[in-house]
Design goal:
Layout: E1 7-11, H1 18-29, E2 32-35, H2 36-49, H3 57-65, E3 69-72, E4 79-82, E5 85-86, H4 94-104, H5 107-121, E6 126-130, H6 133-137, E7 143-148, H7 151-164, H8 171-187, E8 200-203, H9 209-228
Parallel strand pairs: 1-6, 1-7, 2-6, 7-8
Antiparallel strand pairs: 3-4, 4-5
Helix pairs in contact: 1-9, 2-4, 3-5, 4-8, 7-8
Bound molecules: 2'-deoxycytidine-5'-monophosphate.
Length: 229
């Protein structure tokens, strides 16, 4: 057990419901919620803003060195800042979404952000969601969860989310984008999306948010109990 509680890792493909449930679980246990995808999105946003070639590893590495990414709590969403600029909504744009896998595949980016994530989680009391948390960022996490859902279900979730945000993309297009992102995230050379051997897999396709939250909360309670004994 770490100073402030457990390290909980929640991984899985795009739109499997990770951030929604991770946020609620963190709140219920009074843990910090860390959305690592938002960190990859933030540097992608910044690189696009600065007109940097997204495949230019050196330039993006330099950019990272001078870029601060921070979070402040908020309801229903956490606020994200890049060098003091609020980017909470901007990092969810289609442009960032469709380019983030390219930037997230660069070793220099992974190296830098993984270090920042490990630093945030070192004292525990944290629920961290991403793709490689259980495998690379926190290989000794107290609890590892891997969430999955069908492509169709995930596209439908994104569609509803987009409608709320006034983003107009067809379901078909979203299914294609999700498949492409899954492919890129699972096939990159450095820490690809992969289920850790000791992760508990939960298929959220036909589950409600509350059901998933309850399952994870039960797992956390169990861990807390065994850690006490
Ligand atoms: O969870 P998300 O959709 O906001 O993540 C955005 C992108 O960042 C996703 O396509 C893959 C990448 N990512 C990653 O490579 N590693 C993480 N730990 C989190 C996200």
């Amino acid at each position: 057990m770490h100073k402030n509680g457990l390290q909980v890792a929640i991984d899985g493909p795009a739109s499997a419901g990770k951030s929604t449930v991770a946020k609620i679980v963190a709140k219920n246990f009074n843990y910090i919620y860390v959305d690592t995808g938002a960190m990859y999105r933030s540097i992608t946003y910044k690189a696009i803003q600065d007109g940097i070639d997204l495949n230019d590893e050196n330039k993006i590495g330099d950019l990272l060195k001078k870029t601060a990414i921070s979070f402040t709590p908020g309801n229903p969403v956490q606020h994200v800042f890049v060098d003091g600029e609020e980017v909470t909504e901007k990092i969810r744009s289609e442009k960032v979404t469709n380019n983030v896998s390219t930037v997230a595949a660069l070793p220099v980016v992974r190296h830098d952000l993984v270090k920042r994530q490990q630093d945030i989680a070192k004292d525990g009391g944290v629920v961290m969601d991403g793709r490689d948390i259980g495998t690379t960022v926190l290989p000794n996490a107290d609890l590892k969860v891997f969430l999955i859902a069908s492509v169709k279900e995930r596209a439908e979730r994104r569609y509803l989310e987009n409608q709320k945000n006034g983003i107009d993309v067809t379901l078909e297009q979203l299914e294609k984008e999700i498949e492409l992102r899954d492919y890129k995230d699972s096939h990159r050379k450095v820490s690809p999306l992969e289920k850790a051997k000791d992760a508990v897999e939960i298929d959220t396709t036909s589950l409600s948010i509350n059901q998933v939250v309850d399952e994870i909360s039960d797992l956390i309670e169990e861990k807390l109990k065994t850690n006490k004994n």
